[in-house]
Amino acid sequence: MLLVLAALANPHRLRILAALRTQGRNYVSRLAREVGISRPLLHLHLQKLEEAGLVASEYEVSLEGKALKFFVVTDFSLTVSPTSIADAVASLTPKKTLSQSTVSK
After folding, report:
1. Which of 39, 40, 70, 80 has the most CB atoms around its CB within 10 Å?
2. Global pTM?
3. What is the widest separation between alpha-carbon atoms in the chain?
4. Do residues 49 and 13 lie in contact, with contact meaning Cβ atoms separated by under 8 Å?
């Protein structure tokens, strides 16, 4: 849940998801032009979206022999409620307290 919320908290990533949802699968160069950001910046955002499971990618070879990486929006749904937050918190690793992290001399 945290990865998804962090990925969705960026306006560039929301634009990328909207473009892929509206126009379907797309490769990086074309998507960068359509969203209006550089390819390196787009790669960074696509990596975060892919890590969160919001997009998927696959390579395809064009007729000219170029390898193109295509991205598509995955089928996802997110419900944020007090219950889903409590469930997410229960799955977190416990924080170390100050007494646990101090080393005795």
Report:
1. 70
2. 0.79
3. 67
4. yes
